[in-house]
Structures are given as structure tokens and as C-alpha cells.
Amino acid sequence: MFKRKDNKMSCEENREMISSFIDAEVSPAEKQMLEKHLGGCAKCRTLEEWLRCVKEGISRSAEGLTIPNSLRDRILASLPEIPLKQDPVPWWKRLLGRT
To answer: Are 19 and 51 in contact (CB under 8 A)?
Structure first.
């Protein structure tokens, strides 16, 4: 995702990736860089710990929650039908409204 020659991440770059890091959606190299940054940056480490707590709280509050099948069916029925494959429309046709 982020490629830097010095293998250092700024706080801004780190903050953009913390959620992905918590969800284990980063590459091994990104994980290593994030862990190194978090080891030396109290502000980013605090943010990471806070986001982990929020995620755990949401997970706990959803435990045992059941959604009726009728609700699922109503939601799916209300969604517009999505074509399986659409031919790409050139940007200039979209811009001119000629799709």
C-alpha cells in the first residue's frame, strides 16, 4: 500500500491504516512498519488501542443478535437489480451524459 524508501511511516499514513491493521488486512511489510511506528508513537498507539476497544464493544453488543429472515428478504428485495456485467463507458461520455 505505502512504499517509502526509508521504511518509516508518518503518523498520518499510520492512522489511515490502523483499521486495516486491526482487521489483519495489511501486508506483512505494512504490518512490520506499523508495529515499528506504534512502538515509538504514543498518540498512534493510543488511537489503535481505542479503535480495538470500539471494535470489541461493537462485537460484544452484537452477540446473540438475530435478524429475522423476513427482514433480510425485504432488504434484498428493496435493492435495485445489479447487472452481472456492464460494458465500461468512456469518461467523456459519462461527462457529457451520453451513457
So the answer is: yes
